[in-house]
Amino acid sequence: MCWVRKPVCYLRGLSENSILAAQVFHELLGFNVADPTVRVGAASAAVDAARFGDGEVRVTLAAHAPYSVSPAMFRAIRVAVDERPAPVTSVHLGESPDEVEFLKQGTGSVRALLEELGVWAANWEPPGTSPVTYLSDLGFLDRCALVVHGVQFDGDDLSRLAALGVTLAACPRSNVHVGVGSPPLEAFYAMDVNVAFGTDSLASVSDLNVFAELKEARRIAPRSAPSAHSPAVHRDGRDWEGSRCRGRRGETQRRRPRPCPTRTPGSRPGDRWTDRAP
Q: How far apart are alpha carbons 107 and 59 in whole angstroms?
């Protein structure tokens, strides 16, 4: 999986005969946008233009984070994603204490940065909730959403993610590098959350070696985290639970993920995927 801002440019170099299978997220930002629907519509057109081949490389829309995407844009992205056959999306969530402070109080370094960049929205009101509650209440989270980070999640957050069937992708090396602490991996597993692993990006790690990520995960949670030799680990940097959101056959035959079902726009299935096909 990867996150890009210009999917057409990114995919131009990929051959239609490539043996690679990938899920590409066209990530959107916009905290103060006059018409989020227009921006999301343009992004959807770019995603459609990036389609090619037999579908092994798939592109979808994603939101960056709750401090860089407005509530209206979150809703517009979700509507656009729901119109696709495999409504997969992603968001960075619960990474730093600054993000939590911003959502609960509307203060701190995040607001200062938005004001400095000239993108602060004077009519925005802090929801006064946790990041998970905020996006859940907006209707953005469901079983086909990939949530990245989760360092600041508490028990209530994890319980809600588990109930929604959301997959949580931990990036422990990146979290340590940027100074937000280590993800509570033991709690992730104890709360029966679907856990995946990723490297984030070269901006916050020295390499994209997922085995190094798993090594750090084992250091943090030796009783729970998978090892580099686990049969549930995939070569693209996500474990089996992450692969089920991709809507394609996995790379092992141990389990076969079911694709996210086709939905009518606006529907919000609340049931979890608890099945484990042989």
A: 35
